[in-house]
Structures are given as structure tokens and as C-alpha cells.
Queue: 3 jobs
Job 1
Amino acid sequence: MNEVLPSTAHTEATPATGWPGIVSDWSSDKQAFKEVSWGKAMMWVFLLSDTFVFGSFLIAYMTVRMSTTVPWPNPSEVFALEIAGHHLPLILIAIMTFVLISSSGTMAMAVNFGYRRDRRKTAALLLLTALLGAAFVGMQAFEWSKLISEGVRPWENPWGAAQFGSSFFMITGFHGTHVTIGVIFLIIIARKVWRGDFDDGRRGFFTSRRGRYEIVEITGLYWHFVDLVWVFIFALFYLW
């Protein structure tokens, strides 16, 4: 008697459940992004979410400025400095912008030398980028202290619309926090590069695998994003 075996030609695999199902789902995502490392993909996700936050702040600022009936302060007067008896509008803002944009160039060079495994030049350029970022934050702190001493508060200012103070401190403060965090990470990564952690595969944050210089590029993505956001803040807040 011939036995009839059940056909398996059209049998569908049963989806895994529980922990095996979670592992399977994450594995499929990893295959979908197999050409991109997890670190770089997650940084892009973070930057996209941060874009929405900064975009919301800037849209709110434009809405408030266009809707208020009280005259908005003139940025050329508010952010002017008296140097050697000369009234220089936006001179500090121009220097801050030049410093931050220059740091984007040093960051790009650091990424280039990182992939060449030139750790001395990579570390030096990372530290130079951090120094420029720290200089930017220092000038921003000077700008804040100057405006506070002149009577600017989040709820009022002596030059017109009360919303000016809240918009200024919220937007520039949020961006300055991003720059400060970037400076801290740049110093941490520069130290690891200088010690040779990426060459030796020393275990620790971001250095569990030998030759893992990609973290320099990931840090660069964050830093370029911070610089790009400042361009929009500069255009909308200081030039408008």
C-alpha cells in the first residue's frame, strides 16, 4: 500500500513569536539596511527628529514675529557692540558664524584623516573643532550676559515686543546646548583616537571593535547638522 505524504509545497512558515520574533524582526531590519551601520542609521534618525524640533521652534518664532502688533526690536541695534568708539552692528554674530562654519571644515578634515588611519592628525583636528565650538559657546554666553544686563528677559525687553526675549533665549539656548554636547563628544572621541583605542580594539564606549573609525564620521554628521541649523537661526533671527 502506498502512503500519501502530506504536500509541503504550499506550506507557509509560521511567524516566530516572543523573543525569537523580536530577534527576527530586528534581523530583517538589519538586512534592509545592510549597507549602513546601525550607528550611522540611528544618527540619521536622531537628526531627522531634531530637525522637526528646530523647525517647530523657528516656525513658532516666525509666527510670533509676524502676528505681534508691538514693534519688533531691530537686530542691528540689539546685537551691536561699541568697539573703540565705533558702533558695529552684528559684529559678534558675524564672528560667531565664521567660527562655527570654520569648525565644519576642520570636522570634515578629521573624518578624512580618520579613514586614512592617521590618528595624530585626526585627534588634532577633532580637538581644533572642539576648541572652535567652545569659542562659539563662550561668545554666545557673552551675548547672553550683555542682553541680560541690558534688561532682556524671557517675558520682557526694553526695545519692544515681549516675545523677543523668550524666542531668543529658547532658540539660541537650545542650539547652544547642542553645540556644548558636541564639544564634549569631540573631546571624548579625540582622546580615544589619540590613545589608539580604534587601532587596538580597546573595549569601551564606541571602541569595541578594531579599526572602528566610523564613529568619527558619525560625530561629524551631528556637528555638521548643528552648523546647518545655525545658518537658519542666523538668517531668520539676526538678519530678518
Job 2
Amino acid sequence: MKILVCISNVPDTTTKVKFKDDHTSFDDSGVQWIINPWDELALTRALELKEDAGNSVNEICVIHVGTASADATLRKALAIGADKAIRIDACAADAYYVAGQIAEYLKENPFDIVFSGIESSDYNGSSVGAMIAEFMDYPGISSVTSVNLDDDDIQLSRAIPGGKQVLKTETPFVAVVQKGIASEPRIPSMRGIMMARKKPLEVKPSADIEILTKSVKFELPAEKGVCKMIESESAEQLVELLKNEAKVL
């Protein structure tokens, strides 16, 4: 059984976001790039499944749609434990384009399970995993918090309002995973880093996929106003500020 984990290359979550060219593009100067946190948890769970002698997972592959600037991030995924990495050489224009590129690779290189993080920490689109399932006509399960394999018995849990839902499915399928799929992301060991140098990182040409959307302009949120402190006994002053300044009453 083979698992494909979709990887996004995103700015470190502590990055101070800046834009250039009249706010039409992201300024990536000085930015440290990392594996998208939800994808990193997905990779961790995939590795746990492979290490479990109770199932037949024997290969973990990571895939990314992007330029050579993401190779260091893919090498980190290999150092964490993935067996190989695939980079589709294209600029990730929009979610439909990314999902289409991954689906074209899957048609030629089938996998039993596809993991995708529920969203990326940069654009928060939450749509690539579902689009892959639609392209491939695979079952797509969203908000997955656990995946357990026992030969052909595959059970997934997903978060729903007020509780959880337990599902059974068959391969192939796409699992869009979220927090809870693994407890902590893995940190590459020195041995893993050394082994990653010998693992394959294949670069594939892009397919002819239509781009449906284009980012026109970005805007930063408005700066927060000055915090006003009032005495705990000054209820009337609080009401006046909420009514006349905050205008929420």
C-alpha cells in the first residue's frame, strides 16, 4: 500500500507579511520557508502507519507543485522519513491548477491513499484535497482526525459539530486531515538528514491545466487601535465608549 502526501511550501508562521509592486505580490525577501503545518502532521501520520507492522503500507511519497525554491522543504520531508519526493515544476497559480497537476500525476502513478492538509497557512483555501478527489473520482473525506488501517478494514474519524463521525472506506481515497491526525510533527534526526541526500527528488513537467483565478491585490488588516483601560467600577464609561467609539451598542 502506498501513501501520497501533498506538501505546501509556506512562509514560517512567525514571518512578518509584506507585499510589493503596489500590493500585487508577496514580498518573499528574507522569508524562511517551511512545510505547511497541517501537511507536516499528515506526513507524520503516514509514517506512523508505515511503521505499524499490522498493515501493509510500504511507501510514503510527498508531492509538491512549485519551483526549485521548494526543494529544501521537500528535502526536509525526506529527512523526516518520506521515501521519495515529487516536484511538479510549475508556479502554483491557484488551487484548481495545483489539484489538477497532482491528479495528472496520480493518473500515471496510482496511490492507495492521498493525504492533504485541511488548508495551507498562507492562503487558507481549504480546497486542494477535495478537488483532487473530484478530479480522480475518489472518495474524499474532510476534517479527518484519525486514520487506522487493519488490512482491508480502513476506519477514519472526522470532526463534526459537537462530536466525531467514524467512517469506513476503501482504497483509493483522499483524506483531508486536520489537527488531531498526529500529536506532534516529527523533527528530522541527523541520520534522517544524511539519508535524505540519497533519496530521490524527482522533478516532473507540468500538465496543461487551466488557471481559473488570479490574485489582483492584497491588503493587510487595519492596525489595531490604542487599548483604553478603565476602572472596573466605571460601568457607565464603558457603556459610553462601546456606544460612541466602538459603536457596537
Job 3
Amino acid sequence: MKYTVLNIIMLVGLSLLLGGAAYSGYRLADVSAEREQVKEDYSLSNSVTFGLFSIDQWRDRITEVLSSQIQDYHITKAQQRDMLIMVEKEMHGLVSKTVAEINKPQKGLGAKLKKLAFNTLVDSAELQAQVKPFAKTIVAKISSPESEKRLKNIAGSKVNQLTSQIYDSVSVANYAVTKYVYKKYKVSDPIAFNNRIDQKLAELKIQLVQYVCIMLGCVLVALLLWFALRKQVHLQTPLFIFALLFAFVMLVTGSLLPVVEVDARIQSLHLALLDGNVEFKNQVLFYQSKSILGIVETLIGQPKPDAILVGVLILLFILVLPLLRLIAKGIYVFSPKKLGRNGVVRYLTFELGKWDMSDVMIVGMLMTYIGLNGILKSQLSSLNIHTESLNVITANGTSLQPGYFIFAGYVLFAALLSYILKRVSPHDAL
């Protein structure tokens, strides 16, 4: 009776571990979908189309700098002195040119009379002496508060004309997107929105790591329990069936979760303009996150036959074939004397492994990640600019996602199951 109770406890424990792994897979899919949606909202709201690549956004930022400069503008004492020198120089030149023009040899009687009258009534030296006080009067008039206000109004009107012009059609779309995401995340400005997104993504990342650890931990504990009971021959069949169920959970979860995420952005752009700054932050150049099943759907949805063929091959050899092999192994282990002797079942169990490309997919995805990461780093580094007037900083957020690690865990676990099955069934494996 004691031994039977232990068996029941063992089966209940495995059931709990399997339930924990399945629940973790469900939560991983849920949290990953939420995270992907948050990233898409963030990428849409901070897209370069609505920011750095929008003429209207440049207009608004430049207008803000110009308006600030206009409102803060005052003619300083140094500028008044420079202006006085320039006005005096121009007026002295104008007087000299006028006197020289009048004193030229004249042919007509009227012109000669005008020349005579000018030289009789006007002293050119005295006229030049009047230039300085007259220039002071002009500069004082220009520097008066009334003149400054008038100049600011004129400049402001020109800036307002610039503001009223529409150069592209993204403003309406940007307003609609901004209104939608701000309402969704209960914020009212870009800074609060970005902070809210960063906080949300950090929370979701912690949850993803926790559930990945729980799933892989459940599988590891089940393996350790199996190893501890390896000498209990009569328990090997239920233990192997449980192991197949764990592998099934890992296969489904790893296929549905994102495996690679590509995130390229301009983290900040600062342009010095008229003692002001034109600034853009968190401009998303490209964002994409795909699962293995998502890759298949994308390829099959392409109009090109070669892309469709690749999608079908991935579906067949990466997803369908491993699933068939798990089912065949279950049938073989559960009924080795009846259905297990069927040629199709034995072929799927032992021979079809050479066509299982799951391990190739793992290596391929890793190489794809390394290649994409290297290309993006190289391309984004060329956009990094650091000068006195322009400072551009880029960021590469490309990373492997939980789906990759779960699917890699499945590949290793499935290989271990195949090895164990060949050891316990050496004749059928030949």
C-alpha cells in the first residue's frame, strides 16, 4: 500500500509540474502578446515618419526656437555702438558721394546754377560734422522699446505665416495616433508616455523571465525525478509519457512566442540653432518581432513562389514533423506490442529523426540574429554624429526573445528523449 501511495504521489507531482509548465506557456504567450502590442504602440507613436522625417515637425521645432529668440531679443549697448559706427560710415559715404556728384562738371545752365547754389549755401565739412549726432538719433530711435516691439511684431508675423503652412500630410495622422495612445496609457504628454512605456516594458520583461524560468524549471525537476526513478522499470512508461507531454508543451510554446526582435532607433538628435536646440528623441526607424509560426505565415503570405516554398518547408520540417514524432513516440511507448510494431509508427519514431530540422532552425535563428545585429550596429554607427552643432546618438535593441530559448530547450529535450528511447529499444531502433 505504501508503494502504491508513492506512485500516486509521483504521478500527482508530475501532473502538477506539467500543469505548471502548461500554465507558464499560456502566460508567456499572453505576456508576449501584451509586450508586442506595447512595443508596437511605442514604435507607432515615436515613428520617424511622425517625427524626424516630418517637415511639419521640423517647422514646429524651428518655429519654437525662432519665437523664443524673437521674444528674448534686445539691442545691447555693444550692438548699439556697432550700429552707430556702421550708420556713420554709410552716411559719411552718402554725403561724400552726393557732394562729388554735384561738383562734377556740368553742361547745362540749370545744372550749373544748382552747383553754384549748393556750394554757396552748403558747407560740405559742416555737413559731414552733422553726421555723428544724426546717426546717434537714428540708433536711439531704432533701439527704443517702441521700435523693438514693432520689429518683434513684424518678425513674429513672418514666423506665424511659416507656422500656418502645411508641408506634409502626417499631422492629422500623428494627432489621431497620439490621441489614441495617450488615452490608452492614461498620459497627457510625450515624456509621461515614454516613461509609462519604459515602466510597462520593464514589468513585462520581469514576468517573461519568471515564466521562462518556471517552465524550464518544471521540466528540469521532472527530469531529475525521472532520473531518481530510473531503476523502477514499471514506472518508465508513465514517466516517458509525461516527458512527451512536457516536450509537446515546449514545442507549442516555442513555436508561438517571438524568437527574434529587431529594434533600430535614433535615441536622440540635437541640432544647435540660433542659441537654441532643435531636438528629437526616441525616433524608431524599424521594429519587428516574429515567432516561428509568424515567420511561416509571413512567407506563405508572400506573392513569390520561392518564399511560399520556404514557408511550407519550415512548417513541415520544423513544426509538423516534430509533432508527428512526439505522437509516434507516445504510441510506441504506450503500446509497444500492438501499435508499436506498426511500420509507420516505428519509422516515425526512429527513422524520421534525420528529417527533423528543429536543431537546424535553432542554429539558423542564432546566425540570423548575429547577422542582423552586426549589420544594424554597422549601419547605425555611421549615423552617430558628434559635432559642435549636431549630435546624433543611435540605439540597437535587437535581441533574442523567450520563444528562442523555449524552442532550444525543446530541441535538447527531444534529443534526450530520442536517445533514451533508443537505449531502451535497441532492436527496434536499428
